[in-house]
């Protein structure tokens, strides 16, 4: 496992890629604070409104920064570097975080470290782990991304596949809307599925290679519900728990099957799961049972590190600090920032 000990570095990290404002303080590999402010305003719109998200980031970022410092027990003059999410994400949200991070770095005369959001999710599988066996096949599943990549011992990443349309989390939310559930639907589907059974079968997309596809599932559920509602207008209300269990199962099966297939092809026996959807209890259980049966290692971050958070940004920045991979103060060209750029 890569060791971040002995550097004596304190880093303040900022995450603002979507609708969560988060600031964390790390001392070497230890997370001293990880403050997250989630925006509830988007619930009434059924999805994230970019303009509203960026405005709320502006309102909350100073408060989150102050709280993170107070919780950590450190002051700004004890910080050696500022880390921030550069992308991918919503342009307005990213700019708020980047501008604030740049201002802090300039005023303190310390380095600015830009971090790729997806890379941070992958690195989060290393958090709170006493030991790791590489290489690790990491499945990143969130509202905006579904991706398989290999994490090597030198912390280099190779992307194997990703979704060709909707992300897994997006599928949960869009299907949840069809099921008349409020946004975000993913956690509600997880909760309601526990009281139901997966008695309905939906087709799995057949995509070559290591890629995923979830848009067809959404369409299949739509047509199924339309047909059933013609027979019984109360079908969704009556069957909501079974519907949630059925949808959750097929999404989990698609993720699991592609992951197992890729791991066996590359001879990898360590699996990591990261991103907001990795907080799903059914996915965590099924992956654990499968890995236990195969004798594989499974690394899943604790729930607070699954959703968008600044602590994972800080973990990547420690690696970049070691390598002196510091950013310029130019905050342009944000939208097409990939793992390869980091």
Would you kindly provide a written description of the structure presented here, covering whatever features stand out?
Strands 3-2-1-4-5 form a five-stranded mixed sheet, with helices on both faces. The chain has a five-stranded mixed sheet with strand order 8-7-6-9-10, sandwiched between helices. With 342 residues, the chain is an alpha/beta fold. The model is unreliable at 1-5 (pLDDT under 50). The radius of gyration is 20 Å and the shape is globular. The chain is 42% helix and 18% strand. It contains nine helices and ten strands. It folds into two domains: 10-122 and 308-341, Nucleotidyltransferase, domain 5 (2-Layer Sandwich); 132-300, Nucleotidyltransferase, domain 5.
Characteristic key phrases:
single chain, 342 residues, alpha/beta, Nucleotidyltransferase, domain 5, five-stranded mixed sheet, 42% helix, globular
Helix and strand arrangement:
Blueprint: E1 10-15, E2 20-27, E3 30-38, H1 50-72, E4 81-87, H2 91-108, E5 112-116, H3 117-123, E6 136-141, E7 146-151, E8 157-162, H4 168-178, H5 186-193, H6 215-231, H7 235-266, E9 270-274, H8 281-294, E10 297-299, H9 310-322
Parallel strand pairs: 1-4, 4-5, 6-9, 9-10
Antiparallel strand pairs: 1-2, 2-3, 6-7, 7-8
Helix pairs in contact: 1-2, 3-9, 4-6, 4-7, 5-7, 7-8
In short:
The chain has 342 residues and is of the alpha/beta class. The protein has 9 helices and 10 strands.
């Amino acid at each position: 496992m890569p060791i971040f000990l002995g550097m004596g570095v304190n880093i303040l990290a900022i995450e603002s890629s979507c609708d969560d404002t988060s600031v964390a303080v790390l001392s070497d590999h230890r997370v001293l604070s990880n403050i997250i402010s989630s925006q509830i305003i988007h619930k009434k719109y059924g999805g994230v409104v970019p303009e509203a998200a960026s405005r709320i980031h502006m309102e909350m970022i100073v408060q989150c920064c102050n709280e993170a410092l107070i919780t950590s027990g450190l002051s700004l003059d004890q910080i050696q570097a500022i880390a921030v999410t550069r992308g991918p994400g919503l342009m307005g949200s990213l700019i708020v975080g980047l501008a604030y991070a740049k201002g802090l770095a300039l005023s303190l005369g310390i380095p600015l470290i830009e971090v790729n959001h997806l890379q941070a999710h992958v690195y989060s599988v290393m958090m709170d782990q006493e030991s790791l066996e590489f290489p690790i096949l990491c499945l990143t599943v969130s509202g905006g991304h579904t991706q398989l990549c290999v994490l090597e011992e030198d912390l280099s990443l190779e992307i194997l596949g990703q979704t060709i349309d909707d992300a897994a989390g997006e599928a949960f939310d869009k299907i949840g809307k069809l099921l008349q559930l409020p946004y975000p639907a993913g956690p509600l589907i997880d909760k309601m599925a526990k009281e139901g059974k997966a008695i309905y079968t939906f087709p799995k997309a057949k995509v070559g290679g290591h890629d995923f596809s979830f848009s067809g599932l959404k369409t299949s559920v739509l047509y199924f519900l339309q047909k059933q509602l013609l027979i019984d207008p109360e079908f969704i209300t009556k069957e909501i728990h079974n519907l949630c269990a059925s949808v959750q199962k097929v999404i989990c099966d698609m993720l699991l099957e592609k992951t197992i297939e890729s791991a066996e092809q590359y001879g990898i026996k360590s699996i990591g799961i990261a991103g907001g959807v990795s907080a799903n209890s059914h996915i965590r259980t099924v992956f654990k049972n499968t890995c236990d049966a195969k004798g594989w290692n499974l690394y899943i971050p604790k729930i607070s590190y699954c959703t968008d958070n600044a602590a994972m940004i800080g973990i990547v920045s420690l690696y970049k600090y070691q390598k002196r991979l510091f950013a310029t103060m130019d905050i342009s060209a944000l939208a097409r920032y990939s793992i390869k750029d980091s």
